[in-house]
Specification:
CATH superfamily of the largest domain: 5'-nuclease
Number of domains: 2
GO molecular function: RNA nuclease activity
Protein name: HTH OST-type domain-containing protein
Largest sheet: 6 strands, parallel
Structural class: alpha/beta
Order of helices and strands: EHHHHEHHEHEHEHEHHEHHEE
CATH topology of the largest domain: Rossmann fold
Distance between the termini: 46 Å
Number of helices: 13
InterPro entries: LOTUS-like, NYN, OST-HTH/LOTUS_dom
Strand content: 5-15%
Strand order of the largest sheet: 3-2-1-4-5-6
Organism: Microterricola viridarii
Length: 348
């Protein structure tokens, strides 16, 4: 590995593994196969009921990628699956919005097994030799087949992080990793016990972690899918936009409010990740902004009308506290019991 102190992360997602494990976690073990859920997207009657269960078991890939970004800059992100299958294709918006490389794997046997574990392992080992600056490997899967991969990556000097679904993860795989995270415990994931009323559909799940926003929201405006009409009023309101689509100078108060709420959710999630990782509520302002940019590179406080990041943070005083007496201008989330009802200030 090179002498650079910058941490770079590779994220490798066994897509079928995580989707099936989540479904079985919520609807009893083996239910995905019993329901033939792979082919049940859309339809009526019994198929419609299965589609509803699939929606309830939506995997929030944004939260996974946000967690991975807390270890450093994500240099490689790949998801392995048969993307011609409707259930996998329904996650297209989440994946495209986060620039995840989709690796196509057609099934080669009657059991529909596509060899994702072998292809993923080969790619990881190749990347470890080809990219010497890759310091962290994040394996999103719970299959014991990845134990050898985790062990080999550690031998090669990489920090290995596993992410899996409770009930669908091999204990031996968790032990083989330097760190293993339960999907339900990731910041932005609604706990299973409370998820029924608030879980989004696959087509509208948040792309940057929490549920509901295309870049940074626990709640708010869901991203538009390809089969939904564009909001022509919003398009007309945008005076200027970045290549990623973020309005630089939204003219309407509605757009300004939505953009500020979105940025506030991004800030909150960055603080949650920092607190979970460092076991410290107070986070240095610079570290928080760096984490926000890892999660959403289009974030710009000036585009929201603030001359500095500190001014932006102060506008979120209903949700966060700032300690300007500290040399690093520390920030923390207000305790849940004291947080005020948040609404973006149109006069900010």
């Amino acid at each position: 590995m090179n002498a650079s102190t910058e941490t770079r992360v590779g994220v490798y997602i066994d897509f079928d593994n995580i989707v099936i494990s989540r479904y079985n976690q919520l609807h009893t073990r083996g239910q995905f196969q019993k329901d033939h859920a792979r082919d049940a997207v859309g339809g009526k009657g019994e198929t419609a009921a299965i589609t509803q269960r699939l929606d309830e078991a939506t995997v929030n890939l944004g939260a996974i990628l946000d967690f991975a970004s807390s270890f450093g800059t994500v240099g490689v992100s790949r998801a392995y699956a048969d993307w011609s299958v409707a259930i996998n294709a329904s996650y297209r918006r989440q994946l495209i919005d986060r620039a995840v490389d989709l690796v196509q794997l057609f099934p080669v046997v009657a059991s529909m097994k596509n060899g994702a574990d072998i292809r993923l392992a080969v790619d990881v080992v190749e990347d470890l030799f080809r990219l010497p600056d890759l310091t962290h490997v994040v394996i999103v899967a719970g299959d014991s087949d990845y134990i050898a991969l985790a062990q080999r990556a550690k031998v090669l000097g990489r920090y290995v992080v596993g992410i899996g679904v409770a009930g669908g993860t091999s204990k031996a795989l968790a032990a083989a990793c330097d760190e293993f995270a339960d999907y339900d415990a990731l910041p932005g994931i609604v706990r299973v016990s409370a998820a029924q009323e608030t879980r989004p559909s696959r087509r509208k799940a948040g792309t940057n972690g929490t549920n509901g926003s295309a870049s940074a929201a626990d709640a708010g405006t869901a991203p538009r899918t390809d089969d939904e009409p564009a909001d022509t009023e919003a398009v007309a309101d945008a005076a200027e936009a970045t290549p990623s689509g973020r309005a630089l100078r939204p003219r309407s108060s509605r757009q300004a409010k939505a953009a500020l709420e979105e940025a506030g959710d991004l800030l909150a999630r960055a603080l949650e990740l920092g607190a979970a990782k460092n076991d410290e509520d107070w986070q240095a302002s610079g570290n928080v902004k760096n984490q926000m940019l890892r999660m959403d590179p289009t974030f710009q406080e000036r585009a929201l009308g603030f001359s500095s990041f500190t001014d932006f943070v102060k506008s979120m005083d209903a949700r966060v506290e700032i300690d300007e007496s500290h040399p690093s201008r520390r920030i923390r989330l207000r305790p849940l019991g004291t947080q005020l009802m948040f609404s973006a200030r149109s006069d900010a």
